[in-house]
Amino acid sequence: MSARVGVVLFPGSNCEHDAIEAVEALGGKADIVWHGATTLGDVDAVLLPGGFAHGDYLRPGAIARFSPVMEAVRRFAGDAGPVVGICNGFQVLTEAGLLPGALQKNSGLKFMCTTVEVRVESVRSTLTSAASVGDILRIPINHFEGNYTCDPATLARLRSDECVVLRYVDNPNGSIDDIAGICNTAGNVVGLMPHPERASDPLLGSGDGLVLLRSLLNSGGVRR
Amino acid sequence: MPPLSPVPAWLDGFVSAQFDVLVEVSLRPGIADPQGSTVERALPALGFDGVEGVRVGKAIRFSIEAGDEAAARSQVEDLCHRFLTNPVIEDSRVEVTRR
Questions:
Q1: pLDDT of residue B38
Q2: Which candidate in B26, B58, B88 is best for mutational testing of the A interface (most A CBs within 10 A)?
Q3: Of A34, A106, A112, B62, whose CB has the highest number of CB atoms within 10 Å?
């Protein structure tokens, strides 16, 4: 049975259809879950897509974390359900406290829209289980606030618990320790700034994001 | 009917009053402020030399009803911690003034 992914739609999300397209290209099923929903329905995994949830007003993710659906996402994550936040979704997960640290403005103060290389650093997360440590993936980034930061104790814990999932090969935004993506200690909640759904077909310039989304679909299937 | 006069301070705790609030949100020391640095770098071109330590933040104003100033402040600080700032990267400074 193919894994069913709930793609959360906040007012201002804009990558939900790309995510659905990529999930379905891999044989998965995807449903939109409106941010006002209080339950996720029958899903095996949750994906928070990129965009500008609630206009990014105040701070990216600051208002989205109070959307009713986030309580359901929190319960799902607490129940070991796979949750992935891409770009704005990563910002929402940090604001919601489901992942540590914060994403601040890029060090060059430029909105960046380019394809970067990231290295897989840990395969214990729900998004990297089908990849290998050391794999170099070409995946687009598209953000203004992607400069990951956290206090030294958190960084030490991320490193020792193998929670740094992806690192930039050539750091584009000043992110601490070249971090492009992290997971929680359990490995089932992952946030990353690059957009794997935009690297899901050679026609788009790269198919390197597929291995990540395949990991997500597999982990959802395993759970069921 | 004439407008009601402001509630006198000796009634604190018995009736609620309106307080004007100013919250200044700034990046915590040590957190890079690329916006502040860019502004600082632009200043010499305008002839402003010797300006240092530019930090850009935001100001949020609102009014709040509370029993007294301490209660108003306590509510605002809770609001700052839970919503108006991200404590990982931001600090806040709160001014509360009885209207």
A1: 87
A2: B88
A3: A106
With a threshold of 0.85, tell me whether the complex ipTM lies above it. no
Question: Hey, what domains does chain A have and what are their CATH numbers?
Answer: 4-223 (3.40.50.880)
Q: pLDDT, tens digit, for every residue of B51-75?
A: 999 999 999 999 999 999 999 999 9
Whether B62 maps to a domain, the answer reads yes
CATH of the domain at B50: 3.30.1280.10
Residue B11 CB neighbours (<10 A): 12
Quick one: which H or E segment has residue A152?
helix A152-160
Tens digit of pLDDT for each residue in B16-40?
899 999 999 999 988 888 889 889 9
Nearest-by-Cβ selection for A102 from B34, B84, B89: B89
Q: Which residues of A touch B83 (CB under 8 A)?
A: 58, 62, 66
Please say if A197 is a catalytic residue. yes
Residue B3's pLDDT band (boundaries 50, 70, 90)? low
Quick check: is B90 in a domain? Answer: yes
Query: Which residue, A23, A70, A64, A17, is CA-closest to A44?
Result: A23
| C-alpha of B45 from chain center | 31
Interchain CB contact of A126 with B (< 8 Å): no
Number of domains in chain B: 1
* Structural domain includes residue B46: yes
